[in-house]
Amino acid sequence: MSGNQDQLSLLRTIALGCFSLLAVTSHAGPGLLDPTFAPTVNGPVYSTAVQADGRILIGGTFTTVNSVTRGRLARLYANGSLDASFLATGSGVSSGVVNCLLVQIDGRVLIGGEFTSVNSTTRYRVARLNVDGSVDGTFNPSNTVPAAVNALGVQSDGKVVIGGAFTTVAGASRNYVARLNADGSLDSTFNTSTGISGGPVNALAVQSDGKVVIGGAFTTVFGLTRNRIARLQADGSVDQGFQNGLTGASGTVRAVVLLTSGKVLLGGDFTSVNNTARGRVAQLNADGTLDTGFNPNATSGLNGPVYALAVQANNNILAAGDFTSFNQLSRSRVARMYPDGTADATFLNGLSGANVLVRCVASQPDGQPVAGGDFTTFNGVAQARLARLYGDLYPPEIVTQPLSRNTNVGASVTFTVTVSNPTASYYQWRKEGVNITGATGMSYFPNPRLSAWRQKDRRLQSGWLFILRAGYSESSL
Hints:
The protein is mostly beta strands. The chain is built from two helices and 46 strands. The strands form 18 sheets. Strands 43-42-45-46 form a four-stranded antiparallel sheet. A hairpin with a 2-residue loop joins strand 25 and strand 26 (276-277). The two termini are 30 Å apart.
């Protein structure tokens, strides 16, 4: 072809290859694995918490993070790099496991689990650390806790409530729940004695009035039937106005979250609560009756145990555990639900989730979930034991590809791309690695009348590149 019949072939040969790769491997939407957060953790993560400054604490059985020695406890920056200022001069937890951790308002960190020393200092299964990870000498529970601590809570006066598998603390009878003073000594004014029986406490939540909601495997509290969920008064006695005459949970309770409304969110192994079908997650009113307005599908719900729950800023709820479906939707070990308990079908939609157990989950202020557990892959990508997912601010997905165009010299041509994204997207068209001035819309209109086009671009154009920016993410075609 020659003369006026010469055609300007703007073929996206190389650009198409890059674009197609992106379109195949990127499944945009909530639950997408965040590739900018990729720490390496060499053992299971049992607990996690997000600090106010965005740094992330993790506890478990691991001994290295990002190939640096960290005994069962570590802190990461928001980008997944290790915070070397935390535990910089300590050995961490020498053996066992960190089951739970909690960040106090002042930044100090409480940890509980199955250990006997922290940074080579004797601490029996509960300890408090300063903001740099050093052992807080002002909190010295010299009293022995002889069995695992599974849950922690802090009162407004600084006292610490612990729950677990122990039956004594400092030699005094304390079946599964005890309260420590702000210095770590046993608080004798909170006395559960031998009142709780049937099994350990796995989770607890402290109310603003000093009452404590507990969940676990127990069946009686001070001689009253309390199947796996109960509330204690501020002195440790049973609150008879909570769950009075009700049947409680049919299976172990593993997670308890106190909502700002005063209602209580539960997760665990149960399939019914108060004789009403509830698939491993339920919500109670402030008196322990079942909140019937919260219904994650009475006939199905989650098909496996829930180990952890987290409430997001918009009141959506994250669940983590060992399930593979939620309301008959494929949801492998992490799921999100709306405040009424119904499944959020947009979260992890079309994604494979975690390959094995997720033990803990937390939500960043921006809504991104952080999940820890035993898994080695997430959404089919190698990411062992700690992962961060996108929330509702996720990278753009290319919906419509820019198509090849053949046109006569002097005629106009248009390239267009469309994306699916819940937030504002920013466009920049490039040629041979250089931004094209003014080409910042979803469509680009090159001017073929310019001599540069007639002389230089009449042959195959393989250098076209489209860059799409959305918030902090960038995608290339």
